[in-house]
Amino acid sequence: MNRLTALRTMLWAALMAASSAAVGAPPGGVPGIAPGSPAPEIAGPMLRGEPLRLSGLRGKVVLVDFWASYCGPCILAMPEINRIRTDLHAQGHAQHFEVVGVAMDRESDKAEQFLARVSVDYPIIIDTLGLAAHSYGVWRLPATYLIDAEGTIQRIWYGFGDTFAADIRHYAEAFLAARDGPDAP
Questions:
Q1: What three-state secondary structure class fits 167?
Q2: 143-169, pLDDT tens digit by residue?
């Protein structure tokens, strides 16, 4: 069994075990999730960063961004997301805020080539089988989900537009403030 096949098998097993109960269906019966839904698990082979599972970030506000090398708007969105992460970490939120990128390319080398052009500092998981994308009901890229410290999806953005970065920054800061509470230092 080659390395890619082994990684796909591990991804399949981990995601099926962890996320099968978390997948919901909005009105109309289309698989997907909505604000207020528990965030399905995301785990798998890493392209960048240390191995992680979304559930391992519980207690943090997390921004999950689905992207692909063939996604034109992702070229614009990812540097904005990276800038937000950098700024929030510089403001002292490194222990309370994280971004997780989910590459939807079927071939990891295409995602790697994309990341060579569009460099980011946050962890990237590759979803070669599309299990995480299915669990989240991704239908348009980029698809970006803001998850609060309790693991609940609070906001969803599909695509990229003029207010994308400002909206994400605003809501991330609001959920960080809520997480820290009024008596936080």
A1: helix
A2: 999 999 999 999 999 999 999 999 999
